[in-house]
Amino acid sequence: MQSIREKPRLSFWQIWNMSFGFLGIQFGFALQGGFMSRIFQTLGAEKDAIPLLWIAAPLTGLIIQPIVGYLSDRTWHVKFGRRRPYFLIGAILSTCALFFAPYSSALWMAAGSLWILDASINISMEPFRALVADKLPDSQRSYGFVIQTLIIGIGTWIASNLPWMMTQIGVPNTAAPGVVPDSVKFAFAIGAVVLFSSILYTILTTNEYPPEDLEAFEKEKEENKGFWNGFKEIFKNISGMPNVMKKLGVVQFFSWFAFFTMWSFATPAITEHIFKATDTTSLAYNNAADSVGNYLGTYGLISMFYALILAFITSKVKINRKLVHMLSLMAGGSGFILIYFITEPWMLHICFALVGIAWASILSMPYAMLSSSVNPKQMGVYMGIFNMFIVIPQIVAALGGINLMYKFLFGEEVIYTMVLAGTSLIVAGFANLLITDRNATHDG
């Protein structure tokens, strides 16, 4: 679906500038995804309890994303625009939460820090998705989301390696029982600085298009003013979501179940299965946990290169988004399953390289398909509602879905969580066959 106004094609650097804030957002996500379970274990959490400690984050996203999307659709300021005010609010709150998270002295504090961090990042994240759809013509949507993915890949790789980098320059990597090592604290502090400065860069370098009919926009906003009217409008949009969005929801469910499993269990699974390290106070465990972060960084690095390839292709030719996404998810699923079979730690780079292919596609293709299927005037709220299909599988996983499924399907060993993640991604790949709308599956 296309706006009445013909949007001009933007240059690479214009798209880069408006997406650059995602570098900081991904620093936040990569640090929490790679190291919050390590923090939980350091503070005494049992492995099976880790998913439940993550639950506040997706629950908050389920509520915040549609509300922020709805509000940003109805925001317009001559100087600050539509989406940028939410970038700034989210950046300030996320920066504070990211800095203080590793200083938690109890599990409830760490879980609370994760909740605040994820809620704050959510305030910024979906307006960034909506901004790409706001600014780009349909023919550049895939390209725009791929550039965004390229930046996310850079952020994932650097942030995932930060504790390891800190250790290499002499920052202590062990601490007293129940205390997070300085290497992690320094990494989170650097991440906080990058998060705020990169979002500020986008705010300062990017302008936004005003509503096509400002008078009608203000009139509609006034008519729908009020708390209750806002919720009625959100629920109306949920009940009336396009069929393409529902089918993408199936793909998203299994995709994000897989990645939540990885974020929750990669550290305990790999440190135990590959490195044979279980004592969270030992140097062996903390070095192994740093290595897990390094290997997780590989999926960010490969997602960056894969995004570069997709950016080049989508700038030259039209692609079949569905086919690209299906094959990419299957590659990632194979990577997760291979973790169970490898015998040497270096082989994890191969496994997570395959995961990186899936990650790059997850962050671009579904949004390109969605943005071509919804009303441009409702882009923000639908991007927020689409987040339901990201957070619901995480809630299911956190409430016992992971623990029940990997033990029921495969066995008691925690490494089977990675096999479960791989199986889930392959199912997500096949679910793409449900999507048949050509406007969604092909570039305009």
TrEMBL record:
Annotated Gene3D superfamilies: MFS general substrate transporter like domains
GO molecular function: transmembrane transporter activity
Primary residence: membrane
Membrane topology: Multi-pass membrane protein
Stored InterPro entries: MFS, MFS_trans_sf
Compartment(s) where it occurs, according to its Swiss-Prot or TrEMBL record: Membrane
UniProt key word Membrane: yes
GO cellular component: membrane
Transmembrane segment boundaries: 12-31, 51-72, 84-101, 145-166, 186-204, 253-275, 295-314, 323-341, 347-369, 381-402, 414-435
UniProtKB keywords: Membrane, Transmembrane, Transmembrane helix, Transport
Keyword Transit peptide annotated: no
Matches recorded under PANTHER family: SOLUTE CARRIER FAMILY 45 MEMBER 3 ISOFORM X1, SUGAR TRANSPORTER
Protein name: Maltose/moltooligosaccharide transporter
Organism: Aquiflexum balticum DSM 16537
Lineage start: Bacteria, Pseudomonadati, Bacteroidota, Cytophagia, Cytophagales
